[in-house]
Amino acid sequence: MGTHPIRRLGTAREVTELFLFLSSDKSSFITAVYYLIDGGYTAV
Fold first, then answer.
1. Full domain range(s) for residue 24
2. By CB count within 10 A, which of 1, 14, 34, 39 is most buried?
3. What domain count does the chain have?
4. How far apart are the C-alpha atoms of 37 and 6, rounded to whole Å?
């Protein structure tokens, strides 16, 4: 995965972890944010 800065593809679990956090009360103060889960691919 030479084009990915983190050198691997993400897993379904990693995406699920963010979804669960955003669905929980722990994220109650977060509004209008776009989370890109791509391992830094678009940062290059």
1. 12-43
2. 39
3. 1
4. 12
Tell me which residue of 7, 25, 23 sits closest to 15, measured CA to CA.
23
Residue listed under structure tokens 């956090």: 21
Residue 4 pLDDT greater than 90, yes or no:
no
pTM equals: 0.68
Q: Is residue 4 part of a domain?
A: no
Based on the number of CB atoms within 10 Å of its own CB, is 41 exposed (0-12), middle (13-18) or buried (19 or more)? middle
Q: Is 26 a domain residue? A: yes
Determine the Cα–Cα distance for residues 42 and 23; give it in Å rounded to an integer. 25
- So what's the pLDDT on residue 2? 65
Indicate whether 3 belongs to any domain.
no
Amino acid at 12: A
